[in-house]
Specification:
heterodimer; A: alpha+beta; three-stranded antiparallel sheet; 46% helix; B: two-stranded parallel ribbon
């Protein structure tokens, strides 16, 4: 290992630390950094003076792999970039490939994608809810959230055969149709979730300990968030009503009624509130889609020999923000270049304006509130 | 479990020291909460409500100093390999390692790519391999049961005093 080990030193703060200051390494093995994030903190006692995120502990060569696989073979790798929201990262990639090949997607497939995508948003937010609460010391919420996640996984398993990484979307549609009885299963789950969300709100929303840990912590302004290129709940938490499902509707999202929840203060609590409201919006969308789903094929006419020509950028709203894929084709069936735009990578840069001046314990709340997935940051 | 070998007097159990030690070791495998990639989510799911690792006496610990078992859940790349080795070295003996998922076994879907260590066993010794991408919680629990069997077969090693 010694000769191949990569030494990638992040530029440290070069100012000589004063006598009472010290550097602290947070991660890569830390229970609340959500994976393998490493933070270099310069602290004065418990207070953070400056911080630098160090990434790359989960770089898995996704973009290079995509150049050496045929179009359909890349889809499983898309799952593994953002492993908490596999469907949405597949979706961005598949949409890009469809645009390059000019493939029409049947209407039923679009509806199935919307349903599955919103189910994925619920699953991802459930995990965020559990781990965020766990980081703040509330173990009960973690167990509650995983209970609901398992019942959602049962439906996913019946539909796609997998629990987490589905490989379900195809260029031109989806792999298989909804199974018989899917409608009852998902509606029963949504009813259950609505009941349980009341329980969740009782646990955390309005809890005094929780509020004092989150309110006024990690504040960023609207202008900062836009200047850094934030998206998703982080941006909406600052009061910007930006949601690609509404502002740049893809698939059939323009046919459904739903609201964009926005926060007020841009702190950890606002981002929490935004995500809790998004549960209800996802439930609304799935109910409408189930009611109006048309019949027909679920996989369009796709040429056997796929040819990618030209370049395109497509973006979807993942649970974490804007996931985009820039795909270049040179006429063969393998992408010439595939770039993956990750929202968490952008949000990582926001850690410094969010965290400086706060305590180390608040850093944990801030990292939890931007809902980071290192697989997506490092690719 | 084969612990009680002879029961002559009511209330008195006789067994061998080796069995007693192994039995207590295998019944309280504290694992390190150490997530790398996708498999970490399945590891968390195994520890959470439905599957409930606590039934095996397994509780997650945040520090390597307090843990007996290291589950390596995910792809180890060259930057991470050093860290994994350091964490393994920090664990107190006796210690065990489970390689969870295809990536930790031999690189899995990323086998042979630049920057990927093809299997965590290139860095640290592995006791049980749990295949899958990611393995289901049942598979991980089966891996733990296999590890428990392995522990029961172990002898007593009296470590030599550290030279200092």
């Amino acid at each position: 290992m010694a000769e191949t080990a990569v030494t990638s030193e992040v530029k440290q703060d070069t100012t000589t630390p004063a006598e009472h200051e010290l550097f602290v390494n947070m991660g890569p093995q830390h229970p609340s950094t959500h994976g393998v994030l490493r933070l270099l903190l310069r602290v004065d006692g418990e207070r953070v003076l400056s911080l630098k995120p160090d990434i790359g502990y989960l770089h898995r060569c996704f973009e290079k792999i995509a150049e050496r696989r045929s179009v359909q073979m890349v889809i499983p790798y898309c799952d593994r970039t953002d492993y908490l929201a596999a469907i949405t990262s597949e979706w961005a990639y598949v949409m890009a490939a469809e645009k390059l090949m000019g493939v029409e997607v049947p209407e039923r497939a679009e509806y199935i994608r919307v349903i599955v995508g919103e189910m994925q948003r619920i699953a991802s937010h459930l995990l965020w809810f559990g781990t965020f609460a766990l980081d703040l010391g509330a173990v009960t919420a973690f167990l509650y959230a995983f209970r609901e996640r398992e019942s959602l996984f049962d439906i996913f398993q019946k539909l796609t055969g997998a629990r987490m990484l589905y490989n379900y979307l195809r260029v031109g549609g989806v792999r298989n149709d909804l199974y018989e009885g899917f409608e009852e299963d998902i509606l029963r789950f949504l009813d259950l979730l609505e009941e349980r969300l009341i329980e969740y709100n009782k646990l955390l929303t309005g809890n005094r300990i929780f509020e004092s840990r989150t309110k006024g912590v990690g504040v960023i302004t609207k202008e900062q968030a836009i200047a850094y290129g934030a998206s998703g709940p982080v941006l909406r938490g600052c009061g910007v009503p930006q949601d690609l499902r509404k502002t740049d509707p893809y698939s059939v999202y323009d046919r459904f009624e739903f609201n964009i929840p926005v926060g007020e203060h841009g702190d950890v609590y606002s981002r929490y509130v935004v995500r809790m409201h998004e549960f209800y919006e996802s439930i609304r969308i799935i109910r409408q889609a189930i009611k109006t789903i048309p019949g027909g094929p679920w996989l369009g006419d796709v040429p056997r020999r796929m040819k990618l020509v030209g370049d395109v950028y497509t973006r979807v709203e993942s649970p974490r923000g804007e996931v985009g894929v820039y795909l270049v084709g040179d006429g063969s069936d393998q992408p010439y270049r595939c770039h993956y735009r990750s929202p968490c990578f952008v949000h990582l840069q926001l850690l410094e304006p969010m965290g400086v001046g706060h305590l180390i314990a608040d850093m944990v709340a801030i990292i939890g509130s931007i809902d980071i997935v290192m697989g997506e940051v490092d690719r | 479990m084969g612990l009680i070998t002879h029961e002559a007097v009511p209330g008195v159990v006789t067994t061998s020291l080796r069995r007693l030690l192994n039995w207590s070791r295998k019944s309280s495998l504290w694992y390190m909460l150490f997530g790398i990639a996708c498999c970490a989510i399945e590891m968390m799911a195994t520890g959470a409500s439905r599957y409930d690792f606590d039934r095996f006496g397994m509780i997650f610990r945040a520090s390597p100093r307090q843990s007996d078992l290291m589950i390596v859940p995910g792809t180890v790349n060259e930057k991470m390999a050093d860290r994994v080795k350091v964490l393994y070295d920090q664990m107190a003996e006796p210690r065990w390692v489970i390689a969870m998922g295809g990536c930790a076994i031999n690189g899995g879907p990323y086998h042979g790519e630049y920057n990927i260590v093809d299997g965590v066993d290139k860095v640290i010794p592995v006791d049980v391999y749990v295949p899958g991408c990611p393995p289901r919680p049942e598979a991980l629990m089966h891996g733990v049961l296999l590890l428990q069997d392995k522990i029961m077969r172990e002898g007593i090693e009296i470590p030599a005093p550290a030279k200092g």
